[in-house]
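Key idea: predict the complex, not the pieces.
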Amino acid sequence: MLEVDDIEFAYGGSKAVDGCSFVVADGQVTGLIGPNGAGKSTLLEIIAGGLAPSRGRLVFNGVEIQGMSRAQVAQQGIIRTFQTTRELTRLPVLENVVFAAPNQIGENVLASLFWRRRWASQEAQLRARAEELLAWVGLTRLREEPAGTLSGGQRRLLEIARALMAEPKLLLLDEPSAGVYPAVRHLIAQRIREVVGRGITVLVVAHNMAFLSEVADDVVVMAEGRVLRRGPLEEVRADQAVVAAYLGGGHVGGTS
Amino acid sequence: MNLFAEAVGFGLVTAAVIALAAVGLSLQVSVTNFVNFAYGDFMTFGAYVAYAANAAGLNFFPAVLVGAAGTGLLGVGANLIVFRPLMRRKSRTLVLLICTVGLSFIVQNVIVLIWGTNSVHYTVTIGNALHIGPFLFTPGDLILIGVAFGLLALLHLFLQYTRFGTALRATSNNSDLAQACGIDTGRVINWTWAISGIFCAVAGVGLALETNTLRPALGFNELFVVFGAIILGGIGRIYGAMLGALIIGILTEVSGMFADPAYKGAIAFAVVVLVLLIRPQGLLPSRGRSA
Amino acid sequence: MLFFILDLLTLGAINAIMAVGLNLQYGQAGILNFTYYTFIAIGAYIAAVTTLGKPTLTGGVYQYILQWRLPWPLALLLAGVVAALLGLVVVLVVIRRLRSDYLAIVTVSIGFIIWNVITNYIPLFNGSNGLFSVPYILNGATVSTTQYTVEVMVVSLVVLAGCIWVARAIFRSPYGRVLRAIREDDVVAASFGKSTTASRVWVFVIGCFMGGLAGAMLVFYISAWNPAGFLPQESFILMAAIVIGGPGNYWGAVLGTFVFIEFLSEIERYLPNVGNGAVVGAGRAILIGIFLIAVVRYRPEGLIPERWLRWYKVKGPQPGEPPGGEPLTPGGGSGRRRFLGWATSRVKG
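Result:
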């Protein structure tokens, strides 16, 4: 369970996140929505360890993680995807996935040189698992291709496969369906539901209402750096304050 | 106290030359986002072109103008032929860096081919040292400091108060956004290379006068000091470069009072390394830019 | 003629050691170390001062530190270790800001400081006069020049083999994969819990160790060393050779250094004397510059591109057929990357 407690962050003079508090419950998908500039991506970046908040606490399963580096946050079991996909473009798709596995014995320098037998069998297992994940997202055919040659939707799927390879406890998905056509969007939503079925918690930032209604159990609405409303998507969508916030700076619903 | 003041005075002269060079480089880096490792050789080139004009009969100051124009053209030429195609392709910074190294080889050795490796001089007399207050300056020193100050002030006015200056600042901040706003970033980049070349050439001439030698490796050897100034001020930050140059200039000369002058460069740079350890982004306060 | 070839091969082997070391840092890990030659120089100096013993020059100044008389294998090892330690210090200084041009500037400048100190502080390594009459290794004092060349060549090849073994082992391991990931996108690597700092420090230090070994072999071969031998340009030239050869692949690095430095410097001897020596040197440098820009512009992956796919299919127990019944393709993609035909098919990445 992730507890966001009064987080504040300022870019120069303006506060992107201004006293934001909510709880992400275990075992479900929580959507994070809001008009542009509400601070959603900034908050995600803070949780993931890329930015340090000026105030507030983040508690994940009892551990305070605010101020931790990206690597430390990842080691706690929090894995993220990126708003613009960041695959390792020149490396093959399969290697992109295998790389993400945690606790690889062979990643230690000395082990890589001297204790080959120890990591070789782990390596085989990891590759098998990576192949499974690639099949699960439908990218098996492309496993040898450099990740940079994939289409937008394929890259989104790759990021999800990669994130799962890391054995996450909490998945932070930053607009995982942005820029993909409806069939792929539906596939991504399905896969996310399956993930939750395995006990992984998900926090997803999204704009597309169709996608959210498929995927999210519960939705947190952010505006101007803090939480505005919380609840099931249909309720929240009809709420006056939420509509006002969007009309002030955006549009509730639609296919952005 | 007298010696210290004199050392500070020498430091100001050194700082003037370094400031011109560092600002020119900073300007180019801030707009194009990669460091030109051939910059030192551009400085040498400017100094040599000035020398050629001078030797051909021109008076010293017009010769310097010719040198400045020549280096400006060199910069623009390098941009058009080498850098722009690569930047269009969004090449990695590494690739551009390696290119500048290649350019460095070419420029420095073309100078060797044309003018040989022996030291040459300008036909100008520095004049004798005078006591001005607690400082010890030659008329040449004063002119150098004055020119540096003047050029830097001009640049400041240009960047802050003209439309093109604003376009330049916009491009250096975010070139894609600037382009989207209708700014012709290609032209801005070309002019940046030209201005950078001018500063670079004047710095080269200043350096040649200051060390009283002009040989092909002149600028290249000075490159490290210029780098030091830039690191101190933060890479790509023009006013930081001025501050860094001032600090390094004075530091090198003052340190000569306490240690063997041969180590001047090393000491100054050791200080830079120290600053790096404590504050990697340079001395100036960081801008509020997202990572 | 025989000596020319042997000399070429020996220097080639030594240059290859440097290439493998620098390739570890730049090719595999993406760290732009623009002062690699400093570490080679330190290795050379350490090897010299641990085998020279007391200075025997009477009249005139000849100072240096240590003044030990160790057996040459120990001196060789020490050279590597000291270079590695220096590398550790340097990388810890720059580790907080590894943006490429920043790193290039800082490394170049650190190299300059070290060069400046060595040249001016005589008690260290005898300043600009340098060290000479470094003892021969093996039984070098009693055999002909040709035979000594062969002996040095053999030792260098053994050292080179060791370095290639290390580079290869790293390349084919998960550690190598982490390095590649960090090279491509260090934010992503960190986002998956990889310790980017530790990985980079290790590879940098190992690369410097190899540089130290190369420097030692070099000084054992030419028996002398002074600051003129490691001006900053040398690091640039070495870097250029690697980029041209193909940074992602250590064979490319070897080829690049061999062709580049070797051939060009040796062939000078057989060119007609055009003007004076400086002109020829300048001409060579200009060619290098043009070549460098051309390669980087038209073929950024170098002459021999990275071939990481190979080991992926060959080593270890196979995971079996992937679900869906698709056979393991022997490189439907890699067929497209067969740039040099016979050369790359023989090259295992």
